[in-house]
Write a structure and sequence with these properties.
Structural class: alpha/beta
Largest sheet: 10 strands, mixed
Distance between the termini: 46 Å
Oligomer: single chain
Number of strands: 17
Mean pLDDT: 87
Helix content: 25-40%
Length: 587
């Protein structure tokens, strides 16, 4: 137990005494001992958690679009089952973070939110109206004149980071002009105004989102931009196939304009469109990187067999970190698993859960690369969906399968994952009686299978319940109860001493210099203010606040992993007559 604090040693000794005592009294079942040990192991970890009061040099925000608590739970189970376990006993990468809270997601004018207004909340620190981006609630949906009033514009944490000299980046599996990333840099009365071809009558006189990304601050100063959306930026593309996407009418190629402007600044810039080209990018020789890997959104992971030149979310995340972390001032990075949301909208649980596991892999990879001593890592969702895990399926039952017992009304089985709305309704009615399809006659793991839905809709709706937020690193303990969603932006800013907390928290050890290339000092470039250092010129000493003693953490992690593996191989088969024993009225 070398390297443990005295408190850590005492906690482990107490854990061992409890286990030995339980074993010495009388023989106990293996399962009972596993549950006891797992709880005691969790207790030892909790007793040794320490708040990290350091100033965050870096911030990484992982956003699972639409990844409400139900989707998160289903993804956890699905992950474990892909590993050959029951599934329920495991964890997603962020579920081991020491701090967790709930965020209230409603918009100013809607009880159930959309992704634009929610992104404005957690990235800009204020709540806004449905479908609006980067503006306050004085701007209503499609009110172009109101959105042009700069007094209604709100800045984002990305802009605050740039002001403090930090490098910034965004990575997404959606279009880079889509709702979540656009809240970082755009101000618009309608999230659909991604290119001039979508402005139509209501948007005449307003600047489209793609144009704002390339020509205005803070978009033009984002160092790494990786995702989809070639069509919105006017680059060569295939004929339009995604009705939510749009083609430019002005004939501009904004990707080339982006590249030319960076060259004019004297910066080293790369524009790439394939995974191979992305892998060839040298972080040490790249100031700016734009990667657009699809005309619209990136293909779903489960549909990429023929799309070998589309990089994974993990690969894009690691490349972004490699480029951004070269800055002495630190960085801010948004990573969005955006197609979780789209899979759920289509009642396609299979697609959605595979996308969630891509986010899980990206978070795990990033944690191996950064130091939680100086990097705040946050994982959350913007909103939920109307999916539920229902019935009473046996432990370890395929999360994408059926519940295992029949309805006592129509005698048919039903899928474990179901939706209250969406295209998976698949039933008929004679006006009085409803007849639905029997999922036992379908392959529920088929790529195109849509889980059962109650209310027929072409596109499933969002859910209005709170979402979870998990955090680790400096000031993560500020997320500790139920908060308004816009609180998250203020927490991240305070952790790094930027934005509304600029000047309130010094950023020790960080050289707050203008980190932009020499030709980027135009009038519209934010001035970087350097806080005064110590009188003797020496960098202030930064205290060391590990969340958990590293040696103790390793012991606890190893023990936890062994227990979880055993829990995942339990014999959980049930009596085949369980159908008859389940009484919905008494459970």
């Amino acid at each position: 137990m070398a390297g443990l604090t005295l408190y850590g040693k005492v906690a482990l000794m107490a854990l061992n005494i409890l286990v030995v005592t339980a074993q010495g009294q009388k023989p106990v079942s293996k399962d009972r001992q596993l549950w006891w040990s797992l709880a005691q192991n969790d207790l030892a970890a909790a007793l040794n958690v320490r708040d990290n009061w350091s100033v965050a040099k870096n911030i990484i925000l992982f956003l699972g679009d639409g990844m409400g608590i139900t989707a998160n739970t289903a993804a956890r189970i699905y992950k474990g089952q892909k590993q050959g376990r029951n599934g329920e006993e495991g964890y997603l990468a962020w579920e081991r973070f020491p701090n967790v809270a709930l965020l209230k997601t409603y918009n100013v004018d809607r009880q159930v939110p959309d992704s634009a207004a929610t992104a404005t909340a957690f990235l800009c620190g204020i709540k806004a109206n449905y479908y609006t981006l980067g503006v306050d609630s004085s701007v209503k949906l499609q009110d172009c004149p109101a959105s042009k009033n700069t007094r209604a514009h709100v800045s984002s944490i990305l802009q605050w980071a740039q002001f403090a000299g930090m490098t910034t980046g965004l990575v997404t599996t959606t279009r880079v002009t889509h709702a979540t990333p656009a809240a970082l840099y755009a101000h618009t009365a309608d999230r659909r105004w991604e290119c001039d071809g979508k402005l139509e009558k209501a948007g005449v006189g307003c600047k489209d989102i793609a144009d704002q990304l390339v020509t205005e601050n803070p978009g033009r100063n984002i160092r790494v931009i990786l995702g989809g959306g070639r069509r919105e930026l006017g680059t060569p593309h295939e004929p339009q196939y995604d009705e939510s996407s749009c083609s430019r009418l002005d004939g501009r190629n904004l990707a080339q304009e982006w590249l030319a402007e960076k060259v004019w600044r004297g910066a080293s810039a790369r524009y790439v469109t394939t995974a191979d080209d992305l892998r060839k990018v040298s972080p040490n020789n790249t100031d700016f990187l734009l990667g657009l890997f699809s005309d619209s959104h990136l293909p779903y992971v489960v549909e990429r067999e023929r799309e070998t030149q589309v990089p994974s979310l993990e690969e894009m995340t690691l490349k972004a970190i490699d480029i951004l972390q070269s800055s002495k001032n630190g960085f801010f990075l948004l990573v969005e698993g955006g197609r979780i949301d789209h899979g759920l909208h289509n009642n396609s649980a299979y697609r959605a859960l595979e996308e969630a596991l891509q986010l899980d892999a990206a978070v795990a990879a990033a944690l191996r690369k950064v130091d939680l001593e100086n990097t705040l890592v946050v994982t959350t969702a913007d909103h939920s969906h109307v999916m539920t895990i229902n019935g009473y399926p046996n432990r370890g039952n395929d999360i994408l399968g059926v519940t295992g017992y029949k309805s006592d009304v129509d005698g048919l089985n039903f899928t474990t994952l179901m939706f209250t709305t969406g295209p998976g309704f698949n039933y008929t009615t004679d006006g009085n009686n409803v007849t639905r399809h029997d999922p036992n006659t379908h392959d529920t793991r088929d790529l195109d299978y849509q889980s059962l839905a109650a209310v027929p809709k072409k596109w499933e709706t969002h859910g209005g319940e709170d979402v979870a937020v998990w955090a680790a690193g400096p000031m993560a303990h500020l997320l500790h109860r139920t908060h308004e969603q816009n609180y998250l932006a203020h927490v991240m800013a305070h952790a790094a001493g930027i934005g509304p907390s600029y000047g309130r928290r010094k950023r020790p050890d960080y050289d707050l210099r203008d980190d932009l290339p020499p030709h980027s000092t135009g009038a519209d470039t934010p001035t970087v203010r350097t806080p005064p250092g110590p009188a003797d010129g020496a960098a202030p000493k930064r205290p060391n606040f590990p969340t958990v003693n590293p040696a103790l953490q390793q012991l606890l992690d190893d023990k936890d992993q062994k227990i979880v593996q055993e829990l995942g191989t339990q014999d959980v088969s049930s009596d085949p007559t369980a159908d008859e024993l389940i009484d919905d009225n008494h459970l």
